[in-house]
Amino acid sequence: MSIVKQVNPVAAAELFIIQDHVHEPMHDRFLWGTMQRRNQEAAAIPEWEELRDLASKIKEHTLTHLDLYLEEFERNATKRGAHIHWALDASEHNQIVYSILYDHGVKELIKSKSMLQEECQMTPFLEKRGIKVVESDLGERIQQLDGQPPSHIVFPAIHKTRQDVAKLFARTIGTDPNNDDPHFLTEVVRNNARPRFLAAGAGMTGGNFAIAETGTFMVCTNEGNADIGASVPPLHIASIGIEKMIPRVEDMGVFLRLLARSAEGAPLTQYSSHFSGPRKNGELHIVLVDNGRSRRLGMPDFWHSLKCIRCGACMNTCPVYRRSGGLSYGATYSGPIGVILDPTFDEFKYSELPFHSTLCGSCSEVCPVKIDISDQILKWRRVMAEKGYLPLVKKLSFGVAGHVFGHPEEYQTLQKAAGPAMDHAPHFLLYNNSLNPWTRDRELPRVAKQTFREWYLANRSEHGNVQN
Amino acid sequence: MATQTETTSRRDIPESMRVGLFIPCYIDMIYPEVGVATLQLLERFGLNVGYPLTQTCCGQPMSNSGDEHNAEAAEQLFVDNFKDFDCIVGPAGSCVKQVRCHFDRMEQTDEVKHVRRYTYELVEFLHDILKVDAFPWAEFQHAVAIHNSCSSVRGLGIAKPSEIVGVPFDKTASLLSKVKGLVLVPVDRPDDCCGFGGTFCVTDEAVSARMGLEKAHDQVRHGAEYVVSPDMSCLMHQQGVARRAGLDLKYVHVAQVLNGGPF
Amino acid sequence: METSKTNREIIFNAIRASLPDMKVEHPGIPVFQRPAAHLQQLFEQHLNEAGGAAHDVASAAGVGTLVKALHPKAKVICSAVPEIAGTRHIGIVKDPHELADVDVGIVRARFGVAESGAVWLTQEDLVVDALGFLSQHLIVLLDPEHIVADMHEAYRRVRLNETAFGCFMMGPSATADVEATLVHGAQGARSLNVIFLPASER
Questions:
Q1: At residue A464, does pLDDT exceed 60?
Q2: Are the Cβ atoms of A224 and C173 closer than 8 angstroms?
Q3: CB contact under 8 A, C7 and A88
């Protein structure tokens, strides 16, 4: 049994930044550009803020009545020919999927993007049992070929340059390493995936939304790969988290108007597909997955994270994410939403994540379902502090600071000593990178010769109200 | 969370109000001229300003790190120092946000509620409460890029956040535009975080520096000579990064510009 | 499956035990005021932005001519509409795999959405769902009178209870996964051309 190690996003982010002068600036630029497109699209909708409020309330209503809507969905989906399965956790999800594939004699499956399947680590599970799994989404395929998880939930390979992709394809598919034209690279995967769609015994998708009223689930893609996977192989398996429920068909108008605009600055994804039963002569299985969601529902400070519609806008706006790259978070979910979700999977392993943030609050403003992401990040810090997961240096210095800031006389004594100490300290000590990381990329500020308090006492204390 | 529209648009501040001057710890120690400028500016409007000598810190460094336990004493001391003032004004958005929004873990006595509700950041106080429309004593013949901190924008409502769809406004710009000779320059990323984030700038140093450098380049690209902010803590970080990168930018607090000094 | 039944109970018990005390009411969807707009124009503009194109024809005969002009090298044209014969009628297709060689698929959409340039296609329109996704190129006939303003109106028109599959299709297939560079023709159709033609015309 292995010992769980803490993920260190700070060190990982630093590696991402210092690898060269290309990757991190590119990553930041592309996602900032996506944010600008999002802002433009949002500004074109006068009722944008009202839509966010509606979406938030619809999700809160659904989640506070989740059992009723799950029952309604199951009833209606079953009536229309879908087979519903219930999975307690990741392991059960994988087992159920494998059983269905085994029962149908499937040796090869093709899948579209699903964060849930990634969360459950489904692919290695199936491959160990002799089932070939092919990612059809371009970004996911790139990451699959490279043996890496996706780094962004909408743009899985956005941390890679076109040269990276060209070299990867050359290595794994045998194409020209010098042809890095995105059109060519896209065509490579199109031609590579198409025969796999035709050969696959099953197509797997995720589910963006599940409409209780009609037993319908939705899959939104730009490539149309989910639709090929659902319409060609005779077996379609969809993995859907229980929190994806939406009450009524008319609610979808609100969510679809928000989703693609938030994610990428387009009015819709190219394909917004609604599945209410199997295709003609086909079979449809839906695996509804808990994997910690019901437990999260019971956390008063954190259950709002279940409203998430996986748009990725919080990642695009987060300056820390843009500079770090998604792989720095060491989890299926990265960026601000990852910071508040991941500790629910493993509190110790992800105890550093809540500190990998400046609490700027941009994520909360951009979230289409108004999750209080930034406030939850602060609440997780309190959890980590109470559990004793604060880095040792912080624990010690805050203990001292807390005492000093509570006692004015001690504070003033410290002030008197700080100035001269900093003035006379040898330069190498102040600018030594490991002792004082401030100075690695910054010049130090200097303590003033006369504090404000001293100035006040010298210039104002005969007037006004001096309290002692 | 108490934003500008909830607290400062209320007209229940008495005429002869006693204003408590809140000088954050780092202003006290490193940028006392900002404190001097703030006090002199408030006095120009005939306000009765008091300065509790026993104030220390709002508790933000501890509280922001989740260490509520060690923030308690500082937060309680703040309330004790300022409870008898009609309102409290401080030249620091993040510290004021701490008081208004995060003094929520201690028992909410009448004193605590009073202090939380009537603590203002300087720009919002001048703009919303005093409704100052001229600064005749001030002149600043320079190209200025404004930096509004994330706390001020998204926590206190000093400007419309760029993510929100609505009518644009910027209280800092509104005040600075009244200063003779001052030219405001636009920037590409007005409210993208500069990377200070309190202890973040030392614990997450590489990311913080990249964020700060982005700010500085943005400002230089648009021809700014000065960066003016209601938050000196952000400027402290930006200045450090800019100097290291050899960029020629000068940094002053909005109080210094509006008061005409000291610089 | 026996285990599934138990799982279901466990999950529902866990949910019921965790439901937040504070229940939130469904807010209801308001009707948003819209200024009068030229819907066909907006539809075309957004379709163009999404990488598609729209065309007017004088009559059904014009469709065939236009398809030949747009896709001169097409060998297999599979039609699901009465206006066009194509080289293969969808009615004879028994299995979706048979559509792997289709160069151009021709379908009729029930309605379009002005704010996005999307068209609504159902299983009944496609006859075989895969026609919409294996075809290298798509031609979509659309009655220009059947364009709604936004997604709220669109969802009042879809009949999800009456179809096993329905898709809002906005332009051709696309991706921006490599350096955020937009590419059309990722997996599905490489191009999507909408031809305005009322349904009654023959």
A1: no
A2: yes
A3: yes
Asked if pLDDT for residue A426 goes beyond 90, the answer is no
Cβ–Cβ under 8 Å, residues C118 and C170: yes
Which pLDDT does position A389 carry in this prediction? 83
Instruction: With CB atoms and an 8 Å threshold, state whether C180 touches A47.
Output: no
Please identify every stretch of chain C with a pLDDT value under 50, giving residue numbers as ranges. Answer: 1-2, 202
Would you state the pLDDT for residue A466?
Answer: 46
Q: What is the mean pLDDT of residues B229-233?
A: 96
Interface test with A, best of B22, B33, B67, B153 (most A CBs within 10 A): B67
Average pLDDT in chain A: 91
Evaluate whether residue A108 is within a structural domain.
yes
For residue A87, is pLDDT > 70? yes
Q: Which residues, in sequence order, are CB contacts of C199 under 8 Å at separation 6+?
A: C108, C141, C143
Asked if A touches C (at least 3 Cβ pairs < 8 angstroms), the answer reads yes
In a domain, A116, yes or no: yes
Residue at which a domain ends, from A291, A315, A332: A291
Do residues A76 and A219 both lie within one domain?
Answer: yes
Which residues span the domain enclosing A181?
Answer: 45-291
Question: Of C18, C96, C128, which has the smallest distance from its Cβ to A295's Cβ?
Answer: C18
Q: Is A466 a domain residue? A: no
Based on the domain organization, do A256 and A124 belong to the same domain? yes
Q: Does A419 reach chain B within 8 Å, measured CB to CB?
A: yes
Name the residue of chain C whose CA is nearest to A275's CA.
C165
The tally of domains found in chain A comes to: 2
Residue B198: C-alpha distances to residues A222, A421, B63, B203, C180 (Å) = 40, 22, 11, 9, 33
Per-residue pLDDT tens for A88-98? 999 999 999 99
Q: How confident is the model at residue B5 (pLDDT cuts 50, 70, 90)?
A: very low
* Closest chain B C-alpha to A28 CA, distance in angstroms: 10
Question: Hey, which residues 133-162 in chain B have their CB within 8 Å of chain A?
Answer: 150, 154-155, 161-162
Asked whether residue A413 is assigned to any structural domain, the reply reads: yes
Same domain, A269 and A409: no
> Where do the domains of chain B lie, and which CATH numbers do they carry?
4-129 (3.40.50), 143-259 (3.40.50)
Name the DSSP class of C59: S
Domain C37-196: give its CATH code: 3.40.50.10420
Inform me whether the pLDDT recorded for B64 exceeds 60.
yes
C24 near A CB under 8 A:
yes
- Judging contacts by C-beta atoms under 8 Å, the chain A residues touching residue C183 are 182-183, 186
Interface predicted TM-score (ipTM): 0.96
Chains in contact with chain B (at least 3 beta-carbon pairs closer than 8 A): A
Domain positions in chain C: 37-196
Tell whether A138 is within 8 A of chain C (Cβ). yes
pLDDT of residue A440: 64
Q: Are residues A285 and A411 in the same domain?
A: no
Query: CB-based contact (8 Å) between B239 and chain A?
Result: yes
Which residue, A233, A263, A291, sits at the end of a domain?
Answer: A291
CB interface of B with A, residues 100-119, below 8 Å:
none
Pairwise pLDDT comparison (A144 vs B198), residue with the higher score: A144
Q: Give B11's pLDDT tier (boundaries 50, 70, 90).
A: very low
Q: What is the pLDDT of residue B12?
A: 53
Task: Choose the mutation target among A74, A80, A270, A369 for the interface with C, i.e. most C CBs under 10 Å.
Answer: A270
User: Which sign does the torsion angle of CA B243, B247, B250, B254 carry?
Assistant: negative
Nearest chain B Cα to A391, which residue? B203
